């Protein structure tokens, strides 16, 4: 049965998630929880099915840490992490097709990052000021977007495997 929920001052339509997950979470939290799935809003961010970041971009971010260090790429929740590119080379792929394994995607937007990237992917605790670091060396797009990685839509579905080669089309 659909229900309305308010999250950060915005109203959403939602539905209960059927299955054993709420019971497991309730046991863990030591209180009764209801697990719901918010219906996708047409004006929502993160609507693209593919997200891409290069390993070199994540390493570049680490070089800007004080005093420098490793950054776990999982904090960016990307579908595809690309090895062998230059730092932020993926930004240059806007409006281009990229073959990844058997699939072809069309890069169509820069990925404006949010505060979740400041949290350790294992603990959920804030540990790195990623947004401040991105702003310090990459700047701000349109007065408020802190870009890191890109979004893409699927042009030709196909299987992707760890280690698959990528091929970027020559132009848009």
Structural overview:
The protein is an alpha+beta fold. It folds into two domains: 3-38, no CATH class; 50-168, M1 Pyruvate Kinase, Domain 3 (Beta Barrel), CATH 2.40.33. It has helices spanning 21-29, 55-63, 130-138; strands at 3-7, 10-16, 36-38, 50-54, 80-82, 97-100, 103-112, 147-156, 166-168. It starts with a strand and ends with a strand. The model has no long low-confidence stretch (mean pLDDT 90).
Strand line-up of the largest beta sheet: 5-4-8-7-6-9
The CATH class of the largest domain is identified as: Mainly Beta
Quickly count the domains.
2
Backbone shape: globular
CATH superfamily of the largest domain: PK beta-barrel domain-like
Sheet with the most strands?
Answer: 6 strands, mixed
Query: In angstroms, what separates the terminal alpha carbons?
Result: 45 Å
Multimeric status of the protein: single chain
Per DSSP, what share of the residues sits in E-state strands of 2 or more residues?
25-35%
Helix percentage: 10-25%
Number of strands: 9
Class inferred from helices and paired strands: alpha+beta
* Mean model confidence by pLDDT: 90
Radius of gyration over C-alpha positions, nearest whole angstrom: 19 Å
Number of helices: 3
Order of helices and strands: EEHEEHEEEHEE
């Amino acid at each position: 049965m659909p229900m309305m929920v308010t999250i950060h001052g915005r109203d959403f339509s939602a539905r209960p998630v059927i299955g054993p997950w709420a019971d497991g979470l309730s046991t863990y939290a030591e209180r009764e929880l209801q697990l719901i799935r918010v219906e996708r809003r047409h004006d929502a961010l993160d609507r693209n099915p593919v997200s891409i970041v290069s390993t070199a971009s994540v390493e570049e971010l680490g070089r800007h840490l004080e005093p420098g260090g490793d950054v776990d790429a999982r904090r960016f929740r990307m579908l595809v992490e690309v090895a062998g590119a230059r730092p932020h080379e993926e930004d240059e792929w806007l409006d281009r097709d990229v073959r990844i394994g058997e699939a072809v995607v069309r890069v169509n937007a820069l990925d404006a990052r949010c505060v979740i990237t400041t949290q350790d992917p294992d603990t959920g605790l804030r540990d790195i000021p990623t947004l401040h670091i991105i702003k310090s060396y990459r700047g701000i797009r349109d007065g408020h977007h802190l870009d890191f990685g890109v979004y893409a839509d699927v042009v030709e579905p196909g299987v992707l495997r760890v280690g698959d080669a990528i091929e970027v089309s020559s132009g848009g």
